[in-house]
## 1
Amino acid sequence: MSILVALIILSVLIVIHELGHFTAAKLCGIKVLEFSLFMGPKLFSFKKGETEYSVRLIPMGGFVKMEGEHEESDDPRAFSNQPAGKKALVIGAGPFLNILFAFIIAGIVIGQTGFYTNTVNKLADDSPLKEIGIEVGDRIISYGGKRLFDPPADISIFMYGEDGRPKDITFFDVSENKKVTKVITPGKTETRFRLGFTATDTEEGARITDLEIDSPLEKAGARRGDVIKKVDDTEVKSTQEIIDYLNVSRSDKTAPVDVTVDRNGKILTLEDVKPFADFRYTLGIGFRHIKGNVFEIIKGSFNYSISTIRNVLISLRWLFNGTVSYRELSGPVGIIGSIGSVVETEQPVGVKLLNLMYYTSFISINLGVMNLLPIPALDGSILLILLIEKLRGRPFPQEKVGMVTMIGFMLLIVLFIVTLFNDVPRWLF
């Protein structure tokens, strides 16, 4: 069931992407030869006007085929014969519709669940924000020069990439009725010993839902779906009990532990699992959560979309500068696995549906942003070529554009293989 749900979600998002290209092409008067649902061999089709509408065998994605898209054409309505502005509109419409769809879906979720504002509603006793005069009720505007759009998500990703150096923080002081900028040094959480997993607490115990790359449990052979039953000789029934055993109960917290798991009814013992000491930077802050009116919901959805776009770009930068490893790259298998985790989590149907919608909006934004990157074979590379054509005053030969696209497809295949090597052991075994 989880795989079917994942395939449906991915297919819907890709079809929406292609629908953006299709609609823009039609509006611009470009000749569209085919609009296909799914890929592979053709199952059936029908023709309406000049466009063939088809359904293909492999239930994944879809495509739009335009006259003169990858070759020269004498047809005045061919894509290759259109001005740069029309071409850019058609190419950019796909990613734009993905982002617009995410905005709409996020708005529906926010309308049901509410959203976080920039208003401080909680400060930890040791929060560094207290030292500079921030109080409950003040509004945080920016941190490190970056505006907060979705405060919890933004602060979380800022803290992940934190280096501990002082940063500027701008906030609105309600008591003084003015905007203030001060310098703050982020605090550190208490050092905790971890095994590198996340879990959902069930009646059977803590069921592993994710394993960190190169974590002690992953290296010991743990898998997603395993239920942790014991740590050493101590029975544990929840994630908190595991945390308490690792950090409170033991005198030697650095010593390896044996972890007993239930894997589909088979009891296994993972031996000599060595916990690692961990801390993170923190601001010790909580934000007010509200359910707003329709205008506030629209604003909340907009802020969520902008925040997610920016955080995707930050994550890509981390990938290139080595902050995160290429091993954390995930592809279709990983996406299917993540969606499957949501489907299989024990929670009310309504909550599960909202979580799936939220995850769908996140994937849709990722799809839109990734397609705008100037990588050959992606929409962003075509937009870049169009910009260069505009600046140089003459078009690139279509053959050269096709060659660049082919190289891009080869690079994407390599990337797909890399993600398979990351995802298959992580999700299927």
## 2
Amino acid sequence: MTKEMLWFLMGHLVCIGQWAAFIMVEYAFLGRGRRFRFPCLWAALLAAVFLVASIRHDIGFFNVESVILNVIYLLVTVLFFGGSWNQKLSACLVNGIMCLLTENTVSYTFAWCKHIPVREVWRYRSCLFLLVAAVVGAGLLAAYIIRRWRREQALTPLQMLVMSFFPGIVVVLNIVLMVSGGSEVPSMMNMMLTFGLTIAVLIHLGIVQMVNDQMLLQQTLMVEAVRQKKSAEALLESYKTQRRLTHEFTNHTDALALLLQQGDYEGAKAYLSTLTKTIAANTTIMNTHNPLLDALLSKKYEEASRKGVMVYFDLPDLRDMPMGQTDLVIVLSNLLNNAIEAAAQAAPPEVHVRMKKTEGELVISVRNRVRQNVEIPEGQLPRSTKREPGHGMGLANVCAVLEAHNAEYTLSCRDNWFRFTCAFPTNGI
């Protein structure tokens, strides 16, 4: 094998690095699609086909043909993954910007330091390995940032596409730079231009992140405002209920007084017994020292009573919590909704709620009767449909909160009893 052929093959290592970076970013940005079960595998197979075609037809690299080949590969591989068309286009722009900025910055800097034309940097083995490492490293970093950013994303796909306009211009400028200036020794101006474009894109991404954070804050404030409104409505309803109960209590005391005045002591005892049972069936006193949780649990108790479901509580002092009250409300609301819904279809209709707080963790256990045992394959969430009440609905939201707090959970269903237990680390609280 000649040195020219060896150099030609080594140059394709950069292409392999590029395509590997493309795959990592696309998987992080788009995720799996419905048509292709293993999108990364299909993308890798396509990379092998393109590599063979490039070598066989002597396409080479750092030229117009190689750029076209990379663009085609990028446009085809996004079809293997999921996401909308706007998201696919955004992923293409991210990949194009990432690779072009990385390659141009490394090659122009290397050429300027060696005082050689940009096209000649490909003849240096050290530059090739440096380019491969830079592109793969940029791909890993971009995939990590995208995966983390997607969990806190507030921008719509259309907004993301609009904000990708400036980076798209940068892509065009980098292509022009790469194709037109490769035969000359780069000047200080050209090298600074490549650095300037890279810095400009990084600043742009920082601005996008700031806009995203502001939108997240606005969404959080809106959710909090809605929650406060619902809390106020609940307090007003509680006040109305209290006034009604006070009025009813006055009527009951008047009736008891009348029976006692008439000397009907047996009638008074029977009336008092009936009244006690009615009050016990329609009211419950929560005293966890957490007003929001007390209100929530009382509300769920009343909802369960209306459906004929008995709920038994074993609760500690919940003044200090290892998580925000909003997250705890999400967990308890969804668990109790599922438990009450399933218990209403079973006999006897019972739900048991137990919370235990230690120095190391807060354990929440919700156990309820079910009409029939629910299949739980390998500890996964049970599937639920609208036709058959179960525990799949809402549990996904619960598990999202658990994951955010590094909490563990277990599921079991035996002898017509369904149990969901989770443990939150308290961090010394």
## 3
Amino acid sequence: MRPRPLALALLMAAPVFAAELTGYADLQAALDAQPGKVLTLPAGDHRISRKLVLRGDGAGLVGPGRIIQENPDEPVLEIDGLRDVLLRDVTLTRAPGKTVARKSALLAIRCAYLRIDQVRILDNQSPTGALALRECRFARVTGCLIRNYMRVSVDDRTHSPDWGYAFNCTDGTGIQVTASQGTLLEGNTVVEDIYRPTEALKQAHQLGAWTKKNPHKGNLVSQSAWDGGYTDSWQQGSGIVVTSPEASDLTRILGNHIENAAQGIDLHADHVIVAHNVIVNSFMGMKAMHGSRNVLITGNQFVKNALWAIGLMPGAAAHPGQPDKPETANADGGSVISANIISDFGHGDAHWIWGDERSPFKFDTGQQPDDPPLTDVVIQGNLLHCVGPPRYRYAVIIAGPVDGPKTPRGLRFQGNSLAPGKDGVANRKLPE
């Protein structure tokens, strides 16, 4: 009797895991003894005090077990220099009282064709990404849950001549991609339940207050902020960040749910597709800067954001090309923003911080004098929906003087429905 179609599909989809973790002194011993095999992690809690390291190309670990790291100075799981690794259905977390850590829960370095599917990363409160990819190629992170990854910290910028101060903040990143190519992030949920930007939290931890500053004012700091010793930008970190300008390339961020992040999606990369994501209650929905080129932002929902929903701008890593090689420029632009819905802007938890001076769409000038201007952006078919009085002055802000050398240029607006702010749709006539 031939299998019915559904049964056949299930047989084809279900991998066979011959290797087991039982019969060894500990988890690492089992992994070391069976390099290159996909091992089944039995149900229940598995406590460790040193990081687990996978061995051999083709290695893997599949659930349903839970790994609990009791050492805040160690990752939970590390993969270095391997190909074709599979992680599926496991839970990575830290022991109660040890959740404030100094390392990622899951760290993958120099891997190729890595598959991370339906992995749960809980209570990893660290300065690095709870799930971190570094120098990877063609990694796939799908259907994962990252929950409670933020912490109270100090952002020390005293080493930078642009800033020159340190301040109290909340910080943390859910998924961090660094110097990687061909990455797919799809269907993941990144949620912070603990650190919400309330006035009580600000007072309890003196968030935004400077803890030290250099003898001389930073280049990018206003005199009033320098004298006052306070910054409103005390929400740091991101739900998803793709960084390393000019190194990270060809990234797809599709169908993720990001809630209560500082920055929902933060891009410093080229050739990125940001599509069908839901970004809720972040002080910034998403931004692309530092030379982000050819970014497609389409079909996303931005709900209850506070500073911007979508922001494009040059940053410190942007630079012009060599005189005889203009193609070597790291410039922002050549991007499309289409068919996005922005709703309830200014109604999120951080609305009390930013007031109505901000805007759902922000197209900014650069941070450094040599930053090339943002150029050639199509803004088409987007909807900004406002119920009740607007909590913003303009739907769109284009920074810089009209026709200024650093002012964004080549912006093309068509077919958008933008609810005006208190002072109108935009701070200047929008070019059709």
## 4
Amino acid sequence: MHPSRTETPTARRQRGLAALPVTLLLFFAMLLAAAYANRGLVFEQRASANQYRAAQAFEAAEAGLEWAIAQLNHPQRIDERCLPSSTATDPSFRERFVRIDHVTGQQAPVTWMSGGTPVALQPACVLGAEGWACSCPAAGHPMLDVIESDDGTPRPAYSVQFDTEAGSGLIRVTSTGCTSAAGPCRPGAAGRPDASVRLQVVLGLLPGLSSPPAAPLTTRGSVDAGAAALGLHHTDAASGGITVHTGGSLIGSALRLTTAPGAAAAVSASTHDAALASMAPARLFATHFGLDKATWNGHAAVQAVACDAECGVPLAAAIDSVSSNRLISIEGDARIEGPVTLGSPDRPVVIVVDGSITLTGDVTLHGLLYASAVHWDDAGPPRGRVHGAVISESGYGGSAAPDLIHDATLLRSLQRQTGSYARVPGSWRDF
């Protein structure tokens, strides 16, 4: 009988020990491969978001430039929200933000004192659900609300700043656009927008009156006052003291001529000027206004006034309206009956009549009157008066005895302070 023996089972071989680490390594490698493959998508998403914000800020800045130009060319009186105002003491946008020297034509921003330091006034706007909401402060920083869209994202905004530019009639405009009403688009307030863009352009003033006349009365034809005591006054020695400039004769038995001190009134009249007599009406207009009549009528700052009958009332209403118009055009013939006052020493006007004009009695004008022909009839005292100048394409006549007074300061004011702004070619730049 064989002795019994106990058998020890042989340990089995373990398999699959490396499966988990290998799986994890493969998963990690696949994750890296996926991340590597999608890196371009992530980059494009970020680039697209940045481009969207940059484009939003750029368009806001460009909108600020266009808005500023439109406002500068609009004579409407505005309040501190940049909305039309009927308050006579409220200035226009141009008057609120730009100061123009009527002698030199140099333009500069209107400033306010901040801690003893002059700071240029800045208008600003933010895009709301119903359009742009703006602030045009009379002093201090613009007051803008932080407006968000329905999904909670900020609304774009812009601010505008005016600066002095070398040269007469020039002003530099800088518009800063932002993705929100913060930072440079909300001066004086804290915060920072996601993106901002600054654009700049130089604006030139196309004057409403390019070259003022040298005499209180200028005409290609003759002046026939008959027995009326027509008064022609020009006491400025610097501009020659010419009382009348005609291409024809000066007829009048009771003329009242006043010239510069020390000069003879008899020689102050310049008559029978062959060059003036032969000048075409269109050239006469272009000589004084720098543009043809149709282009001048297209000035953004020119207000057309319709006159079916008597024109004094609608003219006075247009000049004294909330828009405070200073450049007026009238199509066809016109008739003005006094008493009426058009313009003022502080706000003279230019009236261009595309036809003849007949004035009667006490008509007072501060500014320049241009027409194809001028006729002034008498309606008894007081006599009419023009402070500025009168230009006629054909001639002057009538039984009235108004006083036509050449006012060089007033005419320079029209030359330097009226007209429309336009971009100077090549001046646009971004930063």
